[in-house]
Amino acid sequence: MLTHSFNKSAAYIRQRLTENSVRVADKRVRFVSVDAYVAAGGGVMRDLFEDDDGGWLTDPALLDRLVDAKLAAEGNRIGTEGWKWVATAVDLPWNATNGHREIVGAELPMTEAEQARLTALQAEIEQIETEWADDPNVPQDVYARIEGLETEIGQLVDRPMIFDPAEMAIAGAFVTIEADGSLCIERGYVRAEDEPVVEVGGEDDGSGVDPVSGEPIPGANHSGTAPNASGSAPIGTDEEDADDDILKPLPDRLVADLTAWRTLALQDAFAQSPATAFATVLHALVLDTFYSYSRESCLQLSLNRVSFANPPAGLRDSAPARAIAERMKRWEDRLPESDKELWDALLAFDADEQASLFAHCTSLAVNAQAEIVPKYDNGRVSTHSVARRIAHSHVLAHAVGLDVVAAGWKPTVDGYFRSVTKPRILADVTEARGEQFAGMIDHLKKGDMAREAERLLEDVHWLPEPLRTPDADGGHGATPDVDREGLELPAFLDDDEAAYAIAAE
Predict the structure, then answer these.
(1) CA–CA separation, 343 vs 296, rounded Å?
(2) How far apart are CA 2 and CA 260, in angstroms?
(3) Mean pLDDT of 329-351
(4) Which whole number is the average pLDDT over 424-431?
(5) Segment 126-167, tens digit of pLDDT
(6) What is the average pLDDT across 446-471?
(7) What pLDDT shows up at residue 241?
(8) Which of 169, 177, 321, 499 is most solvent-facing, going by the fewest CB within 10 Å?
(9) 412 vs 455: CA distance, rounded Å
């Protein structure tokens, strides 16, 4: 059941083993389809009194077996393209591609037939929009036709990538499931251990130059004279007298001393040019963000991108994660392929573009996670450092007007209620909707209570304390106020005990 999951944490495994139903809206269900699940012998439970988005699947183990089989088949199919490896996962970790070099492919150009089809589709959409532009009562079939046309256009415009077979032989692909159940394929990632090793030629030819890179070999004697223990030619030898008329390279020690002096002079001049300083920091951040293999900057500044140990399932599918990924892709499309062209490209951006790119790169280093502090000091994180991190995250949250609810978080069974106790669920429902509602679910088993709590709090804009931003005066800054007097009893929790009993089964 857990074969195709990168997440091997105990909490995730326990969650999968203890779930007793899966919403039809779950991406795993959309991936294999309800029909395939039912055909394999699975059951579906429906709610008679409340909108349930299609109901719940009652055999999660069967669902996971179907998902595993279909993912494995898709992985095998993609592997035939020539990749060295294909990693499949229901939930791809947030940092799955960290430490991998992405190879660059070329878009497969459109054929004449595809270009003609694209032109025809665009013309049909324009005709429909012109025809119905002034009509407030557009039929649903017209909307459906436009949606179908846009889908087909998207498939034509989103061109497949062509990769060098030699690079494909050392690279791989990640295959996972999108939130809508479609297949997500990320091709062209080279693991560090698969990087080709460049072997330097056998013997030094005496030139002091690396025959592969053409760079001077550190510590080499560029004059061709055998060095002594100190790295310099013997003093007072016949060879030195014979070479008196030869112009030799400066000694390495002298070069280091001179460039140390130049470094201080450059630092002083740099400090007097804020515009250049900003551009240089932006250049370094962009190199770290989009050109991880590059060492083109003389600025000793690096971006410590945040990664999460044992990230929660579905994190990559969250609304903020998708927004970040889309922003990343937009900038990738605008930046040059070669890092050597980056400096000039950044200077060509206007001030607003530079600021936006700076904010994007810097945002990737923002860490507001209250990560688990190990029992024994590991020298990396402590309770004190985490507390200060969280405190400063509240400052940033106020500065940017963070709204976690608007960002898309909701209290769901998988994302929250399954991981807390029954008393906590009841306390949360009481806080969000009042004791009356908590009393109506307090007799349920944990799984049923969690599911009903999710439905009760779906549109209340309630947040657990770790997601809240304290008030500026230091208060707890709780969840948004709820007008409990105006809340109506949901249909599945009305006074009809018999109806409720059926809904809770």
Answers:
(1) 10
(2) 56
(3) 92
(4) 94
(5) 888 888 877 778 788 888 888 888 888 888 888 888 899 999
(6) 90
(7) 54
(8) 169
(9) 8
CB of 461 within 8 A of CB of 431?
Answer: no
pTM above 0.85, yes or no: no
Q: What is the pLDDT of residue 233?
A: 46
Q: What is the dihedral of CA 261, 264, 266, 269, to 10 degrees?
A: -130
Quick check: helix, strand or coil at residue 389?
A: helix
CA-to-CA separations, 326 to 201, 246, 283, 321, 492, in angstroms, rounded: 44, 59, 21, 9, 39
pLDDT at 97: 82
Cβ–Cβ < 8 Å for 160, 185: no
For residue 284, how many other CB atoms are within 10 A of its CB? 20
Tokens 């507001």, residue located: 368
Q: How far apart are CA 341 and CA 449, in angstroms?
A: 58
The DSSP string of 12-49 is: HHHHHHH---EETTSHHHHHH-HHHHHHTT--EE--SS
pLDDT above 70 coverage of the chain, percent:
76
Q: Which residues pair with 22 in a beta bridge?
A: 57
Task: Annotate 416-438 with DSSP letters as a single string.
Answer: TGGGS-HHHHHHHHHHHH-HHHH
Q: End-to-end CA distance of the chain, in Å?
A: 25
- The pair of three-digit structure tokens given for residue 457, joined into one six-digit string: 């709090």
**Sequence-distant contacts of 376-385: CB under 8 A, at least 24 apart:** none
Helix (H, G, I), strand (E, B) or coil at 81: coil
**How far is it, in rounded angstroms, from Cα 325 to Cα 176?**
15
CA distance 357 to 279: 11
- Sheet strands side by side (includes 183-190): 85-88, 172-177, 183-190, 101-102
Q: In angstroms, rounded to a whole number, what is the distance separating the alpha carbons of residues 302 and 308?
A: 19
Alpha carbons 202 and 132: distance in angstroms, whole number: 75
